[in-house]
Amino acid sequence: MNDVQLLIFDLFSRSAATIFGLFLFIATTSSLLRTIVVPRTLTSLISDALSHSVTGLYRFTSNHRKTYVKQDSILAWNGPMIIVSQLVTWLLLYFISYGLWIYGIGGVDFMNAFRESGSSLFTLGFADTTNLGPTLLAFMAAATGPIVIALLIGFLPTIYGAYIDREVDISLLGVSGGQPSWGPELLARLTLNNQLTDVPTVMNSWTKWFGNLRLTHTTYPVLVQIRSSSPYRHWVIASIAVLDTAALQLSLTTKLPRAECAQVIIHGTQTLESLYAALFVRKKVLKRLPFVGRFLGAPDPQHRTLSQMHDYNSGTVAVEQAATADSARSFSADAVRLMSEGEKEATAITKDEFTDTVNMLKRAGYPVEVDLDTAWAQFSTLRTRYEFIAYQLAYTLNVVPAPWSGGRRTNFETLWPTSSVDIYEEKLKDSDTNSEPS
Known about the structure:
16 helices; mainly alpha; 2 domains
């Protein structure tokens, strides 16, 4: 090349480096702010790509494990490694963007530009310059590195604080509802422990739990991937167990407290719908569906069945539909279509399974006050409200294969909690045997 060609090439390469460095800086800063700073569910190409890549890697690795517990031990690293990979990627992209800037503006060669970028960004100070442009960029880089690290240091306590708040109730549910938790087992243990009068308090606490889950997990999506400390516990399974408990009480009784059960179903269903729509249906569409005379959660064919339930009148259904319509305004048309189609399907629980469950509750002493056919119609109607969404979440996150929680990517045998009713009946038999005269 002659001198003119070299000059043109140098000018072009430095101009391109400056423009690309600026674009990279803006994209990285936007990703950082959208992921850590702004308290709202915002898409970020960088963060989403990292999350999907890390999740795909751990999912691929876990698929080669032969038991669920071994799979869970691999997937437990997924959430934390997403956070670490985001920090490393943001710092790397800032390193590249400042290196391109220094090369484009500072008049130094390519390798020295990145040497100065790294020295400034990580505050090492082994490279310096006296030119005005690179000096200003060095100051910016020296401020950027500590700011990114400081933001993440503040981000981690927020994430793990929300995680602890979520797991406290799940841990308690492991005692009262089994591990893995199951709605009928929770109701049976409350019955055996003479705690049926505490059901309103229990349901109110879980209503608040669903509210916290909805806020924290849509604000900080990485929480969805952070699993419980025990492989037999998971927030999706806890959600299903509590919703099943409420649905059973609404379907089987007329005299026990019911309003709190209806309330937890409303909040729980909307929470699962919001998480599914915000985090798992990210397809962008220009058109939003108007929610005028159209509601998720309680379609018109189900309205009659719900209205016939004791204390679950038309007013309750109307409040539920209005709340759901307000919540669903932010859902994409694609999310609405998927959820609407899913709710039209019949529940995966069979009537025989339901009958066996009712008999188990009767053995525990639970007061079944509704005939079996009516109870089944009411329970199946209630469960279609949340079953599709809950099963989708359980499948996508590959959670513990608990009873009544749908299929998984790997078909492991269902893990059942220890039956308190079986133990109770064994104790009664032993007591009767010991009391017989010799």
